Amino acid sequence: MSVLRQPPSSTRYVPRLLPLTLMNPPMVAKHTPCTMHLSILPPELACKLFYTMLDLSQSWKRNKWWLFDRVVESPHRTSFYARKTDGVESDNSWQEAAQYWYNGRQTDPPNVFPDVMEEACLYVENMVNKEMQMRPRLPLEWAGRGSEGQIWRANVAASNCYEGTKDSVGFHSDHLTYLGPYPTIASLSLGTTRIFRLREVVPSEEMHSRRAQTFNIPLPHNSLIIMHASTQEKFKHSIPPQSTLDLYRPLFPHHARLEHPLEPSNCRINITFRFYRPDFRPQSIPRCNCGVPTILRPDMKNRHDGQTDKYWWTCHAGAQNEGKGCSFWQVMDMKAEGRGPTISGVGCNER
Ligand SMILES: O=C(O)CCC(=O)C(=O)O
Ligand SMILES: [Fe+2]
């Protein structure tokens, strides 16, 4: 009698990797395309910015959008700021960019950076430029004109407030609609320490040979995470809910309430400083069959490390239109769409 045996499995067993906590800047740089910078601002400025944004956050909103057949709400409050000294085209551009941040909702014109945020932004820009000079640049990164493109600057910022243990943001990579391919995003943390979680999206062709690892990075008050070029293409990030929290104990009194006792806080303020590229200005974004600006996403599962990477324009109308979008889908073509200049065009060391 012959014994029936299962045919040998063609898929190799690939062991799961345990999550790893990255406790310090060298560990972050070793395992991810990000760098971490502690005590990035002078302590008093960091505290003043925390108080300023915490006060402002009282009027920030939870983002709302349609997911399939129901409205979902972001589990944290958010707001969008444009830098008044920067001219990315007209005020209408900023309006559209802000509406995009709120998933296509009608919004008032975006706020401009408060003075204290403007001051902090200069420290952030210095650090980003120092780091960028030490890294290889990727072909589709913005190269600007003259010296402009070789110096990173922020022209918008998105701000988030996470109150208590439950506020969070789920795994995502940031849409590239106005950032273009390979953006550099600088993310400042103020207030209570929260965990920033990163997980690589393993390309399809490697799925049978390796698994993604989850990295947990505790982000203390006054720390900066720079998500360097390729982070959005390769990794997803999140701020998970936590079961416990260490309260933030400010070292300085509130600048407008000097006589008040120092109050511990259970809030984290996050400011992501971003550069909206002139070659991805709102007027240049393709519209889908619904007549709504599309969103730009990288093909994370089939990536080729800066060489032949693909990006898609897809319909985003469903986020607001009761979940009803169209099937619009178009490969982004830098040349045909007249975008650039990019690093591949001007070369890395041109100034
Ligand atoms: O709060 C953070 O550190 C992350 C925020 C974030 O991912 C975003 O605003 O896109
Ligand atoms: Fe994000």
Automatic annotation (TrEMBL):
InterPro entries: AlkB-like, AlkB-like_sf, ALKBH3, Oxoglu/Fe-dep_dioxygenase_dom. It comes from the Eukaryota. Residues 153-277 form the Fe2OG dioxygenase domain. GO terms for molecular function: dioxygenase activity. One of its GO terms (biological process) is DNA alkylation repair. SUPFAM superfamilies: Clavaminate synthase-like. This is Fe2OG dioxygenase domain-containing protein. It comes from Suillus plorans.
